[in-house]
């Protein structure tokens, strides 16, 4: 280890890595075929992608190719992460003196800077606006071997912390709430079979709800019209629920389930005046919740989202439209949207910010408020 030495360029790269990984919460992105550059990602920062490019860019033609390559890779990342836009910052630490970054018209989501030391970053106001502490946090006093050891140790500690957090989120827990919900639904179904509970007294129905029987918006999600109806829904609830409850936690899961069912039933009475029962609106909300959760943890769940969750949602919605006379697809759509917004509101552990959660509650209330206004005030 005493033979380790860092030249100025390597030292700069290490300091930048130290800052983005340990101070800003970025994670490395594996890009096949890419050499002499490091790609980092953070969903919650101004620039979701940061590139640290150590390869020598010696002329404008080489930079033009780099721009083309970066655009292509960002398109791939957008498709893979189901994103509409990905802001990126490329930091070149080995840019030739004859290369002029200002000659190239870059799209708004693509920013390039060239630096030879940390002080050069101050020349770029837009970088300082996004990372005001970048030069301060990287003002490390250590040199040579000591600097290498400190940065390596700090990055390892950060990676260990991330591994512990991910293990906590993804370790399977007992599906207490899911089991309770399945049990309640089955008990209620048995009571309806023996006519102890009359389904029409508690089913979702616009006229009854407008007249003041608001409890139907909740009770309707615990009623089922037949044995196959409840078997299918309870199977789906248990399979999806035990996973999502483990990811979100018991109380967040319960809130998402109830708010999804409420949103589904509200959209149902907006479009229909018949009787509607079933947990499928809430279950679609759980699928929406998994979609939102998986987006935040897509490093681990990307293939599951694209190969299982999204196709499952699409197929079931299509079935709902084909058999619209017997399936309340509006409850499904309302529950799906409600599940996404409810999960945004309660937050995803270690990923969601308070700002994002507040926006989630605001959007959910706007969504429900608009439907409620149209149904209860305008009478549409």
Please, could you describe this protein's structure?
- It is a single chain.
- By secondary structure, the chain is α/β, with parallel strands linked by helices.
- It folds into 2 domains: 8-169; 172-377, Rhomboid-like (Rhomboid-like fold, Up-down Bundle).
- Helix content is 62%, strand content 6%.
- It has 15 helices and 5 strands.
- The chain has helices at 8-23, 60-81, 125-130, 134-137, 144-170, 176-193, 199-202, 206-210, 216-219, 227-248, 250-271, 280-296, 298-322, 329-346, 354-377, and strands at 27-29, 37-41, 49-53, 88-92, 110-114.
- Strands 1-2-3-4-5 form a 5-stranded mixed beta sheet, with helices on one face.
- Strand 3, helix 2 and strand 4 (88-92) form a beta-alpha-beta unit.
- The chain is elongated.
- The termini are far apart.
- The relative contact order is 0.08.
β-strand percent reads 5-15%
The DSSP helix count reads 15
Determine and state the CATH class of the largest domain: Mainly Alpha
Number of β-strand runs: 5
Entry keywords:
380 residues; Rhomboid-like fold; 2 domains; five-stranded mixed β-sheet; 15 helices; 5 strands; 62% helix; 6% strand; elongated
List the SSEs and their pairings.
Layout: H1 8-23, E1 27-29, E2 37-41, E3 49-53, H2 60-81, E4 88-92, E5 110-114, H3 125-130, H4 134-137, H5 144-170, H6 176-193, H7 199-202, H8 206-210, H9 216-219, H10 227-248, H11 250-271, H12 280-296, H13 298-322, H14 329-346, H15 354-377
Parallel strand pairs: 3-4, 4-5
Antiparallel strand pairs: 1-2, 2-3
């Amino acid at each position: 280890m005493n033979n380790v030495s860092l030249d100025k360029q390597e030292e700069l790269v290490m300091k930048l890595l130290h800052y983005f990984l340990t101070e800003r919460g970025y994670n490395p992105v594996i890009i096949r075929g890419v050499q002499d550059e490091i790609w980092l990602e953070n969903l919650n920062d101004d620039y979701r992608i940061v590139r640290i490019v150590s390869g020598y860019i010696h002329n404008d033609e080489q930079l033009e190719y780099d721009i083309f390559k970066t655009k292509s890779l960002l398109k791939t990342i957008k498709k893979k992460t189901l994103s509409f836009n990905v802001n990126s910052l490329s930091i070149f630490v080995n840019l030739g003196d004859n290369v002029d970054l200002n000659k190239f018209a870059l799209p708004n989501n693509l920013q390039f800077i060239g630096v030879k030391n940390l002080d050069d970053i101050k020349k770029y106001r837009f970088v300082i606006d996004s990372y005001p502490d970048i030069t301060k946090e990287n003002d490390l006093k250590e040199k040579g071997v000591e600097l290498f050891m400190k940065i390596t140790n700090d990055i390892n500690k950060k990676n260990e912390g991330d591994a512990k957090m991910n293990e906590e989120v993804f370790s399977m827990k007992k599906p207490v709430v899911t089991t309770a919900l399945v049990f309640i639904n089955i008990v209620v179904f048995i009571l309806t079979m023996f006519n102890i509970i009359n389904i029409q007294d508690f089913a979702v129905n616009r006229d009854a709800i407008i007249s003041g029987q608001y409890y139907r918006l909740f009770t309707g999600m615990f009623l089922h019209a037949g044995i196959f109806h409840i078997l299918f829904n309870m199977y789906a609830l248990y399979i999806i629920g035990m996973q999502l409850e483990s990811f979100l936690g018991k109380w967040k899961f319960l809130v998402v389930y109830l708010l999804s069912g409420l949103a589904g039933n509200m959209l149902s009475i907006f479009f229909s005046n018949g009787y509607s029962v079933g947990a499928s609106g809430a279950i679609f909300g759980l699928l929406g919740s998994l979609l939102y959760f998986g987006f935040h943890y897509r490093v681990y769940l990307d293939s599951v989202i694209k190969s299982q969750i999204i196709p499952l949602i699409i197929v079931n919605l299509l079935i709902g439209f084909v058999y619209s006379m017997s399936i309340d697809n509006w409850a499904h759509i309302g529950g799906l949207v409600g599940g996404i917004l409810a999960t945004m509101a309660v937050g995803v552990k270690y990923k969601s910010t308070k700002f994002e959660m507040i926006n989630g509650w605001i959007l959910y209330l706007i969504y429900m408020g608009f439907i409620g206004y149209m149904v209860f005030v305008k009478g549409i």
